[in-house]
Amino acid sequence: MQWLRMASIILLWASGCRVAVASDTANGLALANLERSGWPEALTTQTSIDTASRAEVLIFGKALLASEALDEAGLKQRLGVQQMQLKSIRQVRDGLWDRLLNTYRNASQNCDEQAFCPRVRSVADLRQLAAAFTGDISPAHAEWASKSLDVHERVLDEQLRVAVLRP
């Protein structure tokens, strides 16, 4: 089962990078070259991998929530597009929430009393958890959260831009 969790996490991350590179080579290369210090703890056990996975899901959820708060004009400006395909944007967002929920659930098995481990039953629960998440349990985690949010916002923007340009 642990390989399935890792595969889900890698697939989520890789799909974002693949979409970014496919949609805009210059921006895709910028994403690939971002300085990321990474998770502040060693990822040597399944428990540590799952903890990092849950935190990444919550940070990505936070970026997704922020994009949903934008009106159409704000989203057009953020994505740098003239026309908006709101149906495509909604489909991409819904699909992302479903993947985030599945990944979070997989990484939450047997995680009682570990960091970032409240149980979620639905996308609505995950949305609430992501909205409240800061990752600020230590200075190192706070630094990671800030950098990770920036990366996830850029990947999300590329995915949404592709949804607009290729509905």
Automatic annotation (TrEMBL):
Q: Which UniProt keywords apply?
A: Signal
Highest taxon in the source lineage? Bacteria
- Kindly indicate where the leader peptide sits in this chain: 1-22
Q: What is the protein named? A: Polysaccharide deacetylase
**Species assigned in the record:** Pseudomonas kribbensis
